[in-house]
Design goal:
The protein is mainly α and about 130 residues long. The protein has one domain. The protein is built from five helices and six strands. The chain has a two-stranded antiparallel ribbon with strand order 1-2. A two-stranded antiparallel sheet has the order 3-4. Strands 5-6 form a two-stranded antiparallel ribbon. A hairpin with a 2-residue loop joins strand 1 and strand 2. The relative contact order is 0.12.
């Protein structure tokens, strides 16, 4: 094969031994089962998708935060906590207390230039700085 007059090396195919392929498949299946297993939870998931002023969680931004009523705000905080704090292959995700998330959104969403900031991104970044000790 040639590219611009220069000869390119032939692609190299690597075959994994069957044992390694089976181990990789088993780990992938185990991780999938761990993420979908039902455990006890103090919060019950709502029947349908949680909306904030008509927007799904993936699109809920600071403008929607200020337009929503208090019930919608709390429902979104709890849905984000369930989603972000869900099981992972490394244990549950890091979450924040509801009151702290409410203050966080109130504070971050106050300046007008943050109107388009997505709430789930604000939450994830803040949770990433939470101390593992408490």
């Amino acid at each position: 094969m040639r590219l611009g007059g220069a000869a390119l090396p032939a692609p190299v195919r690597v075959r994994l031994p069957l044992g390694i392929a089976l181990v990789v498949a088993a780990v992938a299946i185990g991780a999938a089962l761990a993420m979908t297993s039902s455990g006890t939870s103090e919060r019950v998931a709502p029947a349908g998708p949680v909306l904030l002023h008509g927007l799904p969680l993936q699109s809920a931004n600071c403008t929607a935060w200020w337009a929503a009523d208090e019930g919608q705000r709390m429902a979104v905080i709890q849905a984000l906590t369930r989603s972000i704090g869900g099981p992972t292959p490394y244990g549950p995700g890091t979450t924040l207390p509801d009151a702290r998330v409410h203050r966080l959104f109130d504070t971050v969403c106050t300046p007008t230039f943050t109107s388009h900031f997505l709430l789930y991104e604000i939450y994830v970044r803040a949770a990433g700085f939470k101390s593992l000790g408490g």
